[in-house]
Amino acid sequence: MKTLKVALLGCGNVGSHVARILLDDADELAARTGARLELVGIAVRSPDAPRDVQLPRGLFTTDAEELVRGADVVIELMGGLEPAGTLIRQAIAGGAAVVSGNKALLARQLPELSALADTAGLQLSYEAAVAGAIPILRLIRDSLSGDRVTKVMGIVNGTTNYILDAMDSTGAQFADALAEAQRLGYAEADPTADIEGLDAAAKAAILATLSFHTPFDLGDVHCEGITGVTAADVAAARDAGMVIKLLAIAERVEGSGGEEGICVRVHPTLLSRDHPLAAVHGAFNAVFIEAENAGELMFYGQGAGGRPTASAILGDVVSAARRVVVGGRGRTETTTGNVRAVPIDDIQTSYSIGLEAKDETGVLAAIARIFTEHGVSIEAMRQTTHPADAGQTDSATLRFITHTGRESALAATVEDVRRLPVVREITSVLRVEGN
Amino acid sequence: MKTLKVALLGCGNVGSHVARILLDDADELAARTGARLELVGIAVRSPDAPRDVQLPRGLFTTDAEELVRGADVVIELMGGLEPAGTLIRQAIAGGAAVVSGNKALLARQLPELSALADTAGLQLSYEAAVAGAIPILRLIRDSLSGDRVTKVMGIVNGTTNYILDAMDSTGAQFADALAEAQRLGYAEADPTADIEGLDAAAKAAILATLSFHTPFDLGDVHCEGITGVTAADVAAARDAGMVIKLLAIAERVEGSGGEEGICVRVHPTLLSRDHPLAAVHGAFNAVFIEAENAGELMFYGQGAGGRPTASAILGDVVSAARRVVVGGRGRTETTTGNVRAVPIDDIQTSYSIGLEAKDETGVLAAIARIFTEHGVSIEAMRQTTHPADAGQTDSATLRFITHTGRESALAATVEDVRRLPVVREITSVLRVEGN
């Protein structure tokens, strides 16, 4: 039986589980692959740093470039743009198949790295970069290759789903739910990348690239985080039979010129509680896909964690190694589509708008007039009048849900409503999906 | 650009959609595949029969053997064992990649057909055979190839899920729900294969074969249908916060000799309403997987229907055609495991037992003694006393849920309880999963 040399770059939580499985399950992996997968080394900055999993000290090296040389399969789990990007290029130049879980890098350089691997006839796989253990990329790339995806909506960030789910089930404010998530290890000390939607945006770019066979990068993604979501928003959603989720969305839309394009976006979204994505709790991830022939599909699983993510990495490693064993070129991406990215202004969506207004006659008429001027129609309105706080006149809380309209018209409506003298504050603007 | 000859065998609901997509989306499929997919003919018994989709008359032929000769990809959608099996063998002998949706055939001959394709270096794909549009086979085969599956539980028959879901939401009896399903086209005029669990059993054998890398066939599957499920069972499940689903289950278990094996089974099952599978409504399918590293995964989508199933077929066709384009051997199955099939007697499970007993003192004690004799402990009991029907003495309805125990002990307990003079009738025995 052939032996393939596997080089591991990075040994954090995921990497240490990958190493453990390669060592502990070597016989089973060999039987499935048709070749022995020999872990030849692990490149890290500090070979003596403490790790979750006990691994042979002799495997560690600080010389990643040397390790990559001569490897058959390189697993890149360093994260960050450099030196990860350079090492992946060196691995491809040296003839190795590459498996990466580095979403930050891939969201920026996937088309370029895919082209390099393709030219060399090598496989580049990155299942773990989106939705952890859920094999969503393979599904989109292979299983739906004979279909046409029309829309992808994903809960792809476990931290924000944990926070929003906790706000929904306990009524907590955002700051308290975030603090609890940090205490329990679901959010990092610096949670910016998660709560501002940046992590989800990187995954959205990768999902869109595969789903629509066209390169998209982070710059194409409209991104809003969840820091503005309040306990009042969550309570109002609940009253309306809905739930707020941070969704990564990529969909075919008609651009302002009438031609087809793809809008890629991340924002907090109101969803009916009947929608399959509404039932995704805690730190779980899920991706909901609409395809022309397949109809509705949903895939659910753990989005993070050392063991689940290691499972996705190993799936890629076995697949790449089998390809080496049976011969032939690596699987290539098809970026044959040439649809363009469409800005969010051009999409059709509906808004939920919450505001505080003076409680006096004519307020609703004034607001409704502005909706009409922008051609936006109101599907539902709910008003709660409450006694003023000390020193204020009476105030009314209003929540509108619009019918579907163009984002630019909806946004302009909100701006004009905000300028009305009778309106004290726009407290919330959320898009609604899944109706 | 290369042109690949595609032969289609069978043109029912799925086949006609496959043909339509091959013809209508030819350019897009060519871009993704790297070769043009030319539909060279459609073998049917009656070329002039009316079809759902308008297709060129010149494509139809009654000579399937001639059509298979010289094809690069053969799509078999005839169903049944023969002539489908012979034609697939001829296709492989002639050097064609084969895509089949024929679960009846595959449940009996998958290991043999896989071996033939493997020896010839050709791809044999059959995504559409299990769970329609859900690409579950590719997931198990490829994405989880670096992990170890411990349990698979699937709702893989849309007809029975439609019936059970209707019974749950309307309180209908089985016969009425079946009649309604037939009226709406969700059940066939002869519903035997669905309601007796045989269709699900065929899919269970295929799921088990891929999940555990070991050949299993229909004879290894313990099979119970849903004809015995009553409105009273469904109502009692609802009272207990549960729902009844027909599940196809394959799991690693310890056999009676202490060695590991796989138990494959289909039966109506009580599931907590919190379980992800409980939220699968109507004719939708879903497969829930537990793997050592990936943890819990679930995949949801349409299980039947011409367009969704055609999407799965086309995914296989594009994948097989890409392989022909880039060269190298077809993907091979790994049936390297050698775990044996374990009879259901050996599994650990828990029972829900419903019975009618005489309403007199000492009944519960008599029943409890039998449980104790078999080493089975009771987790919950609920008693409903009701006035007797005319001519009967008073009767009591009892429902027990047991703790986990060996199936053989649970079954023996039921038999001994049945023989008690105070017990009028065992009305229901259901296994409980997902606790």
Instruction: Tally the structural domains of chain A.
Output: 3
Biggest interface goes to: A-B, 59 and 59 residues
Instruction: Name the CATH class of the largest domain in chain A.
Output: Alpha Beta
Shape call of chain A: elongated
- SS-based class of chain A: alpha/beta
Work out the radius of gyration of chain A. Answer: 24 Å
Percentage of residues assigned to helices of chain A = 25-40%
Subunit arrangement of the protein? homodimer
CATH fold label of the largest domain in chain A = Dihydrodipicolinate Reductase, domain 2
Number of strands of chain A: 18
Q: Biggest β-sheet of chain A: count, sense, barrel? A: 12 strands, mixed
- CATH architecture grouping of the largest domain in chain A: 2-Layer Sandwich
Mean pLDDT of chain A, as a whole number?
89
Number of helices of chain A: 14
Q: CATH homologous superfamily name of the largest domain in chain A?
A: Dihydrodipicolinate Reductase, domain 2
Distance between the termini of chain A: 55 Å
Strand content of chain A: 25-35%
Residue stretches of chain A low in confidence (pLDDT < 50, at least 5 long) are none
Description:
- The structure is a homodimer of 435-residue chains.
- In chain A, the strands form 2 sheets. In chain A, strands 7, 8, 9, 10, 11, 12, 13, 14, 15, 16, 17 and 18 form a 12-stranded mixed beta sheet that branches. A 6-stranded parallel beta sheet of chain A has the order 3-2-1-4-5-6, with helices on both faces.
- Chain A folds into 3 domains: 150 residues, 3-Layer(aba) Sandwich (Rossmann fold), CATH 3.40.50; 166 residues, Dihydrodipicolinate Reductase, domain 2 (2-Layer Sandwich), CATH 3.30.360; 87 residues, ACT domain (Alpha-Beta Plaits), CATH 3.30.70.260.
- Chain A is built from 14 helices and 18 strands.
- With 435 residues, the first copy, chain A, is α/β, with parallel strands linked by helices.
- The radius of gyration of chain A is 24 Å and the shape is elongated.
- Strand 12 of chain A pairs antiparallel with strand 12 of chain B, so a sheet runs across the interface.
- Chains A, B: It is an enzyme of class 1 (oxidoreductase).
- Chains A, B: InterPro entries: ACT-like_dom_sf (IPR045865), ACT_dom (IPR002912), Asp/hSer_DH_NAD-bd (IPR005106), HDH (IPR016204), HDH_cat (IPR001342), HDH_CS (IPR019811), NAD(P)-bd_dom_sf (IPR036291).
